[in-house]
Amino acid sequence: MKELELLYEGSSKQIYKTDCDDHVVVRFKDHTSAFYNIKRAIIEHKGRLTCEISSMVLEYLNSQNINTHFVERVGADGQLCRVVEHIPVEVIVRNVVAGSMAKRLGLDEGIIPQNTIFDLCLRRSDLGDPLINDHHAVALGLLSYEELAKMYEMSASINKCLIELYDKVGITVVDFKIEFGRTSDGTLVLADELSPDTCRLWDKATGERMDKDRFRRDLGRVRETYEEVAERLHNVLK
To answer: What does the alpha-carbon distance between residue 204 and residue 53 come to, in Å, rounded to a whole number?
Structure first.
């Protein structure tokens, strides 16, 4: 597979065209940002670490019969992925109250709700990625009700797999955000990374944050914490 010209560059990733129309290469960058690029930094080896963690998790999900865009890891910081039509909505799956939900509803972080909470956001950074509901998504022509049902079903399955996987390494999956896409035949697939950049992960024994909140909240040891997550996953998935 030959990597060709750059198709897209965001704050944390680059997407490259390949000599196969059905595949792209996604490269992870050392850049990190928060609060819609208000806070930015370069963290050494972060691209390699987020790629490594996401590759292990996506490969695991593929083995659990969950359709993802991930094909294989390419070098230290890249992934070969299937080309998909991205759906501009984000699903946030919440097992523990934290972050924006706690702030928005005036709740203490760490509360464990009786149910798993699914939030839906429109991917529009100029609007602050607002919360929407199913009817908004359909009215905007983003998904059908049938696709929404499938998306929630897949999100629940992904959540179950992540909880089981991270439980083996002593980590609580607090919440995570994911996006989906359609393949050329219309199949709905997970089309996103799953790393400490996109998941809140708390150490079960200490409650220590093992995710991007270390950068957001100036807690320090971002790279070292990502390295620990990668090592724990490697030890159970090798």
So the answer is: 19
∠ CA 62-65-68, nearest 5°, is 45
How many residues does the structure list for the chain?
Answer: 238
Q: Angle between the 145-167 and 46-63 helix axes, to the nearest 10 degrees?
A: 110
Residue 35 pLDDT grade (very low, low, confident, very high; cuts 50, 70, 90): confident
Sign of CA dihedral 109, 224, 216, 128: negative
Amino acid 2 reads K
For CA atoms 229, 100, 31, 76, the dihedral sign is positive
Q: Are 218 and 207 in contact (CB under 8 A)?
A: no
Q: Alpha carbon 143 to chain centroid distance?
A: 20
Pairing of strands 23-28, 188-190: unpaired
pLDDT per residue as tens digits for the range 72-125: 999 999 999 999 999 999 999 999 999 999 999 999 999 999 999 999 999 998
The residues facing 79 across adjacent strands are 26, 73
Q: Which DSSP helix (H) or strand (E) runs through 234? A: helix 222-237
The rounded distance, in Å, linking the Cα atoms of 90 and 129 is 9
Integer Cα distance of 218 and 216 in angstroms? 6
Residues forming beta bridges with residue 40, ordered by sequence position:
33
> Are 42 and 59 within 8 A, CB to CB?
no
